[in-house]
Amino acid sequence: xxxxxxxxxxxxxxxxxxxxxxxxxxxxxxxxxxxxxxxxxxxxxxxxxxxxxxxxxxxxxxxxxxxxxxxxxxxxxxxxxxxxxxxxxxxxxxxxxxxxxxxxxxxxxxxxxxxxxxxxxxxxxxxxxxxxxxxxxxxxxxxxxxxxxxxxxxxxxxxxxxxxxxxxxxxxxxxxxxxxxxxxxxxxxxxxxxxxxxxxxxxxxxxxxxxxxxxxxxxxxxxxxxxxxxxxxxxxxxxxxxxxxxxxxxxxxxxxxxxxxxxxxxxxxxxxxxxxxxxxxxxxxxxxxxxxxxxxxxxxxxxxxxxxxxxxxxxxxxxxxxxxxxxxxxxxxxxxxxxxxxxxxxxxxxxxxxxxxxxxxxxxxxxxxxxxxxxxxxxxxxxxxxxxxxxxxxxxxxxxxxxxxxxxxxxxxxxxxxxxxxxxxxxxxxxxxxxxxxxxxxxxxxxxxxxxxxxxxxxxxxxxxxxxxxxxxxxxxxxxxxxxxxxxxxxx
Length: 492
Ligand code: SF4
Ligand code: SF4
What we know:
ten-stranded mixed beta sheet
């Protein structure tokens, strides 16, 4: 039995008297403390205020006490109606179903990107194309989700290499949407190398949103994303401009989406954060999604050449984010990871970032459909399958039902292992209400689904991103810019 010293007795007494919520968490910044609770509310306190709060000595009539009470940091003044409504809004995904359905139209690709995570195979090997029969069964499977609005994302390899099936699948999915009267978003992820006017028109007419990769200026992009037939950068920019121009003109018959681009940070990018952001601005893009590389699949094999530490990424991210915030004095340019975190923090809203949920989105938020109809928890889980380990396979569209996939041991294991209540470090972490762990990453890097957060590079990396964002939120001028970003998200 632990010995009760005078100090521990006093501490317990102070907590009882004061009413500190046991699940309040805090993090120390220079000159201040950040206080966070499970309702997703936060408050900065000066060291003296923090000390008084902890010892239950804040005067009850002070502004700071009132503010803490309103946010759910004072046990004797909890407004459970407001607080539970906030919690429910932030965690609304728990009451939905799988919203994202990734159809791998082919494993073939004509690019040889240095970090390729999609485990692509040579563009001549057609036996990895999805047939229309499988695509149709995948669409039917996706519509079994109870989620009132689903997204079907066409991926690869390069999905345009299987254009005829892709086209028929788009038409079929739109027909099912009409029949079932369910919300449907269609999205295509493409390197644009096989885009033509005819394909572009078809995609716009069927309201398919378009996403590509842009890794920065030509010198960096072409070094990361190698394409033997031409400069991948030139092709990407040509079609980005095309879709941007169509989006600006719009059309009264159908909605044309603004094209979006992803930045995958490789070792080649680390020294050029500001230049990369400037390239996005130059191309008229208003959002940049800065994504770290993960040592999964192909990237794991070549990690020594293309990978980097969490510290390297954080330093890149901080420089890029600060540059983006400065640019906002003159133009709109936002960073998507920050936007998704801010949406959670400021709006108590789930932005659909499946890797930052508790539990994570494996199966319960998304499913990956391989070219042969095999189902995986997520695209990352599919990549592990590609290397011969089927631990994240949940079934097959021809053999299994939506319910059996959701109740499968694989799904249950991912849900359990990504529950932050059961992660000792996360449980005490100030960022727990906004964060998430990844069983696939843990399995690949630490050989078990739970992982070990104190030595987990992904945890370190996200902690660095959260620190960068909360440091900016503590500065009035910068905070005003960040708040605007998410106001715009909610409006749009
Ligand atoms: S296992 Fe990882 S990649 Fe898959 S959904 Fe969960 S967090 Fe995302
Ligand atoms: S993964 Fe790391 S940053 Fe995220 S909640 Fe857990 S300890 Fe905190």
